[in-house]
Design brief:
homotetramer, 147 residues, alpha+beta, 5-stranded antiparallel β-sheet
Chain lengths: 147, 147, 147, 147
């Protein structure tokens, strides 16, 4: 059972903008990357291709509060915490720590809610229960971690 | 005085992902684009380069609720409504309507809060009042528009 | 029969980088966008979904020479010229003109070669002839246009 | 003296497109990332901020030949080889190997030419010699590596 995952990445030049900082939309890409790494750490891909029909986890809510900018080549630690677990949905709290300063500093905090869906042959999605083998490995983080 | 702006754009292939839909992070890029077009419609750039020191509008909060996916070549109308106006900050509500179906359908709704900052010579930002000539052209949308 | 297409777009903030200019990778996204608009102008989507199996046009070669940078809010005219037409492949020459200066100035020039493929049920691609109804609408640009 | 650098990365979901493969423009972002990692391995940042005026390395030419697609979660090894070294410019050959198959397979090959520039106070660039301390650490790869 897991409720947390941490990942470090270094800001790439293509992720910055003309203000000299990481473009705010890229924090959402970082959030997704840590989620996918979390799934892999549990032995699963977020694209559950071996299910019939194939399952996926589209996002239904995403948000981020930005405190300090990230810059080119900064190393950022992205921490995922499982905030809520429902039969068909997961909500993560995601924190961004810049390791460019000592001590490390939280520069942003986000929330991501994803829903498990089956993909119909016509391309539409229908929400469905998270497969048991995956759901059984995920638990909500203790309250003191989420505060 | 303006409180609303609408922009149409067509989904580009590079904005889609392997799920066959617009990647959720790109809705935030769309939000920013309509904000900048709104500023241009008022005769201003979001990069106020003629101010000394130069001013900018970094995002301090961004969120989005996703209802239905957008796909390649869908035409989407993005509507910006001014939800809140403070001396140093603006909050927009932003609605996404897919014109791929008849009638048009709201597929997502977001919120963006930006703060006016001056850029110090050392690259750091300090929040500052929105310049009077720009602030004087922006007003909050009527409550019934925001509901 | 068509051999040329022009499209104007305005540089978005998310397309710039910390050097204050459009990130070089985005010129390739612009190239693709003008290709897709060219196809639409002929009454086709680049995703030929009504074919069985579905057809697509993955890129096999892409290149760009950069002469001058593009900046935020510059308006750029992207011109596609059909440089070569084969039964299964098309090569475009693509020119970028900045309209931010008078007279307009060519700031970059690219080449894109795409191949028509059918997508097998297992996800692999096999090259195939460009459908007759599409191929019949496309011709190579006169030599003096391409020089 | 160094003429080669290798980097592994895993394909992120946001880098894929609706064809289910890595969008072709992202190979150019990967190329830049390995270049920057190469510079860091030599003790330098590609943004030479400690120089007065600040130096940078805008791209003047970029190209890529695509042989096989990359897919979500594939691990790709990106190999940079120094192909040419001039007083003001560097050209790299960059090879992409998919580690998703055994044996690893070259899926794409690119070329990138960058020029050292000084950034004038007015934002324009002027080409300049690569600083001696950096240039002294870089050499051209042996011909048999580049074939």
């Amino acid at each position: 059972m897991a409720y947390e995952f941490r990942l470090q990445r270094r800001v790439e030049f293509s992720e910055t903008d003309a203000a000299g900082i990481v473009h705010f939309s890229n924090f959402f890409r970082y959030m997704e990357s840590v989620e996918h790494a979390f799934f892999r750490s549990l032995g699963h891909s977020v694209m559950l291709r071996d299910h019939q029909p194939p399952l996926g986890f589209p996002r239904v809510h995403a948000e981020c509060d930005y405190r300090s900018p990230l810059r080119f080549e900064d190393v950022v630690e992205v921490q995922l915490l499982v905030q809520e677990k429902k039969p068909k949905a997961l909500t993560y709290q995601i924190r961004f720590y810049s390791l460019a300063t000592q001590p490390a500093r939280e520069v942003a905090r986000g929330v991501l809610t994803v829903v498990c869906v089956a993909k119909n042959p016509d391309g539409t999605f229908v929400s469905t229960r998270i497969p048991h083998d995956l759901a059984g490995k995920i638990e909500v983080a203790p309250a003191e971690f989420l505060a």
